[in-house]
Amino acid sequence: MTDSASSGRKSAKKVYYPSNHFSQRACIKSFSEYQKLYSSSIRNPEKFWKAQASILNWFKPFTAVFQQKKKPFCKWFAGGKLNASYNCIDRHIALRGDKKAIIWQGEPEEDVKVLTYTELLQEVCKFAHVLRKFGVRKGDRVCIYLPMIPEIAISMLACARIGAIHAVVFGGFSAQALAKRINDSGAKLLVTADGSFRRGKIVELKEAADEALLQCKHVKRVVVVKRAGNKIRMKRGRDVWWHQEMEKKGVGNFIEPILMDAEDTLFLLYTSGTTGMPKGMEHTTGGYLVYAALTMKYIFDLREEDVYFCTADIGWITGHSYIVYGPLCNGATVVMYEGAPDAPDPGRFWKIVEKFKVSIFYTAPTVIRALAKEGEQWPRGHELSSLRLLGTVGEPINPESWRWYFNNIGKGKCPIVDTWWQTETGGILISPLPGAVPLKPGSATVPFFGIEPEILREDGKKAKAGEGGYLAIKKPWPGIARTIWKNPKRYVETYFSKFNGKYLTGDGAMVDEDGYYWITGRIDDVIKVSGHRIGTAEVESALVSYPGVAEAAVVPVPHPIKGEAIYAFVVLKKGKIGDDELKLKLIEHVKKEIGAIAKPEAIQFAEGLPKTRSGKIMRRVLKAIASGSAEVGDVSTMADAGVVEELKNGASFVQG
Ligand code: PRX
């Protein structure tokens, strides 16, 4: 990469150009090449996507590229037949059978497992047999509640092989949160583990699963992976051990992948929204896979010899698209790890990079901020020369962290792809192509092929360059979630009602005079805590379910490491005393209801909440108070303006 300060208004912002060396070998070698391909993808999307769909092997060709009979619902590659596990594994065997597909680093340093593509095929087929034996058929849902061990990828691909729909639930979610997701999905089988290691301790997953299953009557079978060796209870007639089932008679090394329609559901993944129950976003086999594979190839500029390490948990969309489906579909070698970035020390990732000669590294800004705080000695202590490309995802990256990452990890030579996308989008929508697009720290830069973002004003008109607004996407793309599981009405209302059928992202953004996108963050009631997506409504309902709590309102506050933290205002019932002990109890309660990721950083007890005359909580005012801002804005619509002063006096600020 080379630096250059461009002229005029932009001079304050340094632009980083890809080096000739990088560009010459890249998939897309120049900005003009990007522009040419981008324009053709927008001018004639059907032609573009028809050609790009050849990134997959189709058992039967599709008959239509795109169909939209009933807006906003759409179909991609209708009539086409394929199988995701075949595309991720079988088709690589001839050329890459002995290539490493997955390199797994457990928390204890000596726990390493490597699966070649041939071995992965065998494991996936065996587990597909196990699922079949337990009555799992096409269209059935299987819930996967596993830590970061290879079996999580194996289970997903085994589901895909036999047409079952997987619903992975992040291992950090509590029993209550798991139960809600299992029940909504109607899963009949659960895959979990005894436990896993994190910071030297065992995370008791089976215990949480057992507690959840008390509320889940559909689940008839639980397959348990032995990972941590901790003592667990196995319920007779329901629970079986993974390793025992995999060795049983009849569990062969191969099973035919079934033919799936392009529009058949590949998976559900729950994500938080503005209101109520998390939404089961439904992703399809054909469109999702084309999109995940193509973005992986171009944005990570994938080469045959790359070793790619993504630090996300597979329980989130990043892990689905860019640990499992995207990389494996491209025949890549992917590194996954168990544990935490800072245990046993903050050099953990750099040690993994050195050990496996990682060439592409993809993580979240919150991780970079936390590791930067620990000092440069950690990356300096490791050989990082194998790296050639870096990436970030999950939240806006502040330019200082970007530069720290660029200089200390990439040693000034690795481009950084700041990738903007969402659970709903299936894959990356806005990002640099590393050999072609000059970088501006803090900007996700330009749209991927086929994506037409728009910055809209409240009235739906387009904002000018430099003017902030709602980020919307004008037309569907293959990777867009097709609906919300069992709730198409909510899908239409949430995403397509505000701007006349355009996809509403929930983010605010701005485009600069060069056409670069700058994402400013969520503008709905979703909070991004360390890149994790938390709905305010979920935290509020957890708080009010605690005895003595009358009302609660939750807002984000800026946090130096986490990006945003959760600040909760709690109104108690008459006669209840709000003290520190109760604060701790409430925090514990939220952990129990949702998981540690959703726990409030600060709780403020209040006499009342600022509301409009129609009774709506004024979050804007609460946000200002929580952030310690003297200005709370216009309060003329407030029912009782006196509440503000009282709240300001009681505010307790979040420390870094
Ligand atoms: O606010 C945006 C933020 O993450 C949200 C989506 O969260 P989730 O569905 O959990 O998916 C995260 C991983 C794709 C977005 O609405 N976000 C994601 N990537 C970026 C980002 N904000 C700024 N810059 C990004 N690169």
Descriptive report:
It contains 20 helices and 32 strands. The chain is globular and about 75 Å long. The protein is 31% helix and 23% strand. By secondary structure, it is of the alpha/beta class. The chain has an 8-stranded mixed sheet with strand order 14-13-10-8-9-16-17-25, with helices on both faces. A hairpin with a 3-residue loop joins strand 30 and strand 31. Helix 2 crosses helix 3 and helix 4 runs antiparallel to helix 5. The relative contact order is 0.10. The protein binds adenosine-5'-monophosphate-propyl ester. Adenosine-5'-monophosphate-propyl ester binds next to helix 11, strand 22, strand 26 and strand 27.
Shape: globular
**Which spans have pLDDT < 50 for at least 5 consecutive residues?**
5-12
What topology, given as strand order, has the largest sheet?
Answer: 14-13-10-8-9-16-17-25
What compounds sit in this structure?
A: adenosine-5'-monophosphate-propyl ester
First CA to last CA: what distance?
A: 33 Å
- Over all CA atoms, what is the radius of gyration? 24 Å
SSE class? alpha/beta
Number of helices, counting only DSSP H or I runs of 4 residues or more: 20
Estimate the helix proportion, in percent. 25-40%
What is the fold's blueprint, element by element?
Layout: E1 2-5, E2 14-17, H1 20-25, H2 31-43, H3 45-52, E3 64-67, E4 75-78, E5 81-82, H4 84-96, E6 100-105, E7 112-116, H5 117-133, E8 141-145, H6 150-162, E9 165-168, H7 175-185, E10 189-193, E11 196-198, E12 201-203, H8 205-213, E13 221-225, E14 239-241, H9 242-246, E15 260-261, E16 265-271, E17 279-284, H10 286-299, E18 307-310, H11 317-329, E19 333-337, H12 348-356, E20 360-363, H13 365-373, H14 377-380, E21 389-393, H15 399-409, E22 416-419, E23 453-456, E24 469-473, E25 483-484, H16 488-496, E26 503-511, E27 517-522, E28 526-529, E29 532-535, H17 536-544, E30 549-559, E31 563-572, H18 580-593, E32 602-606, H19 619-626, H20 642-650
Helix pairs in contact: 2-3, 4-5, 4-6, 4-11, 5-6, 7-8, 10-11, 13-15
The structure holds adenosine-5'-monophosphate-propyl ester.
Residues 271, 316-318, 393-396, 418-423, 444, 505-507, 519, 521-522, 528, 533 line the site of adenosine-5'-monophosphate-propyl ester.
